[in-house]
Amino acid sequence: MTSTETSKRAEHWQRTKSLMIITLSIWFVFSFVVHWFAASLNSITFFGWPLGFYMAAQGSEIVFVLTLFWFVKSQDKIDRDCGFAEED
To answer: What is the pTM for the complete model shown?
Structure first.
């Protein structure tokens, strides 16, 4: 393995690891933190519903789906930039 390949692998892993940490942080915030503070959030309304209720019922799920699409797009960009993309 050449030093260029080793360098590309290291860059790929570092960028993938950073993306994974960001994604898991978003997941943690919308899975636990928002729900821990749901009672406090209920003083704010969103489309006529208390925000804590809305986030528990629909908001978190919407964020999860959007996060998945963003993760896939970002990981594909990392793979292409580092030369590890799977060709269609």
So the answer is: 0.81
Of residues 4 and 26, the one with the higher pLDDT is 26
Domain boundaries, the chain: 13-79
Please report the pLDDT score of residue 86 as a whole number: 86
- Report the share of the chain in percent with pLDDT over 70: 99
Give, as one character, the DSSP assignment of residue 50.
E
CB atoms within 10 A of CB 58: 13
Q: Which residue has the higher pLDDT, 47 or 13?
A: 13
19: which residues sit within 8 A by CB, 6+ positions away? 71, 74, 75, 78
Q: Where are the alpha helices (DSSP H) in the chain?
A: 3-28, 34-36, 38-41, 51-54, 60-82
Cβ neighbours for 35, distance < 8 A, ≥ 6 positions apart: 52, 55, 56, 60
